[in-house]
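User: Sequence in, structure out. Go.
Assistant: Echoing your sequence, followed by the structure tokens.
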Amino acid sequence: ADEAAAVGCATETAALDAYADGLPTDRPVVITAASYNGRPTDDAAAFTAWLDGTPDLTGVTYAVLGVGDRNWAATYQQVPTRVDARLAELGATRLTDRAAADASGDLAGVVREFTSRLRTALLQQYGDPDAGHGTPDEPVHAYTVRTLTGGPLDALAERHGLVPMKVTEAYDLTAPGHPRTKRFLRVALPEGVGYRTADHLAVLPVNAPELVDRAVAAFGLDADAVLDIRAARPRRDGLAVDRPLTVRRLLTHHVELQERPTARQLALLAEADPCPPERAALAGLADDDPRTLVELAEDHPALRGALDWPLLLDLLTPLRPRSYSVSSSPAVAPHHADLMVSVLDAPARSGRGRYRGTGSGHLASLAAGDTVYARVQPCRDAFRVEGSAPVVMVAAGTGLAPFRGVVADRTAARARGAELPPALLYFGCDAPDADYLHAEELRSAERAGAVSLRPAFSAAPVNGASFVQHRIAAEADEVWRLLTAGARVYVCGDGTRMAPGVRAAFRTLYQDRTPGADATAARRWLDTLVADGRYVEDVYAAG
């Protein structure tokens, strides 16, 4: 939208479902689409259904930008590809070729290349070549004055729709010395802010002081210097800075310091390095080099002091909120939200010391009385656990978070005398005395008849069941009975190892109980459950 406005186009942004009754023919349409398990996102389901049924779209001019993650190869770019092909099939005119942006690749580079092509096409077909280049009138007054109101982070909070929230409780959920710390956080919700079970809390992190010090040293900066940053043109994805600020505040609150640079950023970095051998080394870096921008600057000392601020701001991505599943229930605690945070603290992939996650590291550092900037973010409707059907919940680690809220809902319902369909909760831990999260609370809920707990302990397996998929396989008859009774399956947590293992367990479960079924039939069966909303995942790639 920003690029289109820059070439003289009036722009409007909306969810795809806002156009489920038809697309305009009097202006170009740019569609950004993604897939979730091969299905449209919640705000595009009505649009894609309409697109499948409409007979003709002659007169529509369009372009499609697909966003996905190649780690989910079976459904990668499935919806954007389908939308692009269907529009062309119905007679719409393609403004420029579809682009496929990969979250595990050079996403920013693909978006930039698509935007460049789109800009050229808009200028050729719609734009005024001279748009945006007029000479401004001479100022009437000698000075321009801006009145600044609010606090120094208000513009940043407004950009992301965040409000300050007070931390009221913070403590470890895991045993002392456990190598993968899980942390509990409770935040008080401001007046008028509510949530539903399984929603998310998007939290804006803060870069650790030690990391900021490393960046200052690597880039050769003065941490106390004051910057007055003005955008050449407003951008929705630019820095949200409305007043002068110190270098330390900029690096602490406004930019990512632990991201790997994109291909374009690497090219800019190499071009700026005044040392020929270093420049050649930077230009020849492999695509999978694990080093962050700060680490690269540390390893190429000629860059120290060589990057001016306009270039450095091109290299530093604006800091973005991190999303965490809410682990509480509004039926029990409507005025606060609980989080389970898995603290990422491991040897750095670059081999330089340890890597501490930006988001989880910040949350782990908080204590009661501290403030975070956050917003409630609704989960997908498909992930809201139905109370009328049997349910099988599967998680590992902090993937338990939304299901703790579901169990609390069911416990409250049981206390009111409600009869509930069966609920199985499979969840993975290391050992009962190490990281069995909220153990007493969950056992109390089980005693109340709200849930049947099925933990799997990787360091202390019972009957050979080290992981959740093993326990599901061991109890396949019971799970199958619930499925035939209409049970819904919800999976939350690691999408790299756990979720594929669980899918394989369910396919095997079907194949073993369906005469004549082969692996292809089992895949089709699971795909049907997904399409019907009876097998729903909320998973993430491991950090």
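User: And one key feature?
Assistant: The chain has four domains: 2-125, 163-203+321-377, 208-315, 382-540.
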